[in-house]
């Protein structure tokens, strides 16, 4: 069914439905969501303020501990500032230390006389004096290399790196690094440096790390970037009090610091990852703040889905009603046109034979009899048709009245069946009748009962297909008087068995026999009025059995 097939009245109903229900409902949902969202945002702002205050307090406590212990997950880098200069992490190495006086002679032999052999001996002697041991050993290693004794030289550097890893050469470079590089033992050295094993200056760290692996980068170098930014951007206030903790932000950094004895400052850069990953979740948990955005989304989605479901159900119901109504309207107009057609046929025949009889020709007696019988048969048919239509229209208007009287249905049914028998036999049917001369008393309207019986017999004839057997039975059972009509014809599909009692309903592609879909509708109406019922048992292709059940009058 298309929308333009829908009568104007229903189009208006749809419009009203949309204007009065769908549009306001959508509007209300929209307003509801808006106000819900505003409330949610207000709550979120409040919560965010509370969270920020708590976070600040917790961070301050963490800072106290970090400054005291000099290690804490809240701290990313510690720093020290002396005389306004960042000394840790150190950006530059102090100027080189001068070598001790005792080394001057040995150095002269090595560097000026170019006699590494003599120098080697001198350095070895100096090694015995414990305080110069590492410096002398480094010079021994250097001379051995100059003398071409590479293996011995490497062994000396190795000893230096393993025995005095934390001592430094005159340029402040740890022997642990220099020795290992000279000996070629660099496995794992990069990682050791990157892990902060030695306190290096920015220059040293950059130099060694690029020498060991020019392609790698390490967060260890980040502390020097921090130190550079710190020295450029950090300007502490001129009056600071000992024992107090201050904080300051610059660039992406935040620092906590305190004054130490003299004018030294020490502090740390906050580890933002720890704050976001540990401290914040902990506080949120403690405050009972959960991320509610997913939940909100589900609530919104649920509300909208519910409204949509209800609206769609409304639209579906409306369309169903409209399509039913449109179908009934179509059936009604089909009904009118086929009734007109069916009225015309008997009228034409009656007229034709009446005119024939009126002609002055003389007809043989049996022809005349034949013509009269046709006129009688067709007028009966006409009468039945008009009866059915009148009954239907009374039923539709609610004017149909039944005069129920107590009595025996057997003679009424016998008379109808008997009247019908001739018609059946002419059509080649064999009628099987179970003789029941009388039945227990019931209350019934004999006109209506006759009509119900005729309708069932009519159907049995129309839908018998090739079968020519019809049976009628009357009996009493379970407090009822039952009359049944059985045929062995087309049968009715299970899905249609209830619908056939509907107004104008005809099984689609059922049989092609003429009809209006009113016969069974009237039968059911009649049986309802009698306080009884009509049942059907049927098997497609094997036939059907319709039964009228009348309740017995209680004695
Ligand atoms: P109709 O005027 O079409 O016969 P009815 O209300 O009497 O109207 O019957 C409704 C439909 O039920 C029929 O169109 C037909 O398809 C089906 N029907 C009724 N009686 C029988 C029967 N005895 N055998 C098979 N189909 C039947």
Summarize the structure in words.
The protein is an alpha+beta fold. It has five domains: 3-61 and 291-321; 75-93 and 201-270, no CATH class; 101-199; 338-394, Helix Hairpins, CATH 1.10.287; 401-551, Heat Shock Protein 90. The protein has 15 helices and twelve strands. It is rod-shaped, with a radius of gyration of 56 Å. The mean pLDDT is 88.
The span between the termini is 54 Å
Largest sheet: 5 strands, antiparallel
Beta-strand proportion: 5-15%
Question: Element order, helices and strands?
Answer: HEEHHHHHHHHEEEHHHEHEEHEEHEE
Number of strands: 12
* Integer count of domains: 5
Class computed from helices, strands and strand pairing: alpha+beta
Q: Judging from the principal axes of the Cα atoms, what is the shape?
A: rod-shaped
* Alpha-carbon Rg, integer: 56 Å
What number is the mean pLDDT? 88
CATH superfamily of the largest domain: Histidine kinase-like ATPase, C-terminal domain
Ligand list: adenosine-5'-diphosphate
Corresponding CATH architecture of the largest domain: 2-Layer Sandwich
